[in-house]
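> run fold ABC transporter permease subunit
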Amino acid sequence: METTYPVQSTQQKTRAKNKQLPWVIKAIITVVLAAFALIMILPYIWMISTSFKINGEVFKYPIDWIPKTWHFENYKQVWTGPNPFYLFYLNSIKITGITVAGNLLTSAMAGYAFAKIRFKGRNFLFLLYLSTMMIPSQVLLLPRFILFDSMKLINTHYSLILPGLFTVFGTFLMRQFFSTLPNELLEAARVDGAGYWRTFWQISLPLIKPAIVTLLILSFTSHWNEYEGPLIYLRDKHLFTIPLGLTSYVEEFGTNYVLTMAASVSALLPLLIVVIVCQKWFVEGFASSGLKG
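> ok
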């Protein structure tokens, strides 16, 4: 019996180490991820800090992450100065809001049709529509400009709104989610007298809320930050969106980084609000989309 005590003690120590090992690994992973997260948010911290400084403190080394004097007048000058930022804000809200709403509606309707409505050539038409994703957007710039010019839409917000109302990726995403809904549920609705529109609007659409929120965030981010389209189609400054508005500040004030950073922080707030509010459904949508075929 005496010879078994050291063996039992060694086994107990081994089991204790095995139990502690996952905690050690988790701690290491947590520290590494925290370090990467800090590296990723450092530019944003610098941007916020710079927006409250004066130009002479922007490139000071070592960096003063917390300004010694907070210059809130930078934001006042951005919003009420020669180029009032609220005008660019309103333009971006108008264009992005209409575009995202139309995008969600058309993508959901097309995705539902391709997934649940049987018609001749459905799969071929969907593959043909999906193949347009391989066409680079730059190839369409010149034909689209000529088309909008003939329609007198250049230097109007319609030139930015109309192309954004339809998206191949949104249709594909919605179609994948609608495909997972059981056909028995939709057939039961038809037996009860529900038509295609009521089945789509009242039964199918509420069941794919994660997909809707996912497309909403992606579409909102894309159109809110779009620079190429406004640069090509807009001429008058009062029509500019936020990305073009930022460049106008740089052109007028030279390298006035504090005003540029103040405007950038203001432009970032709507994106943060949308992501924070919709984060739960956004993560759920991406997680479940990986399981759909």
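The chain has a mean pLDDT of 82.
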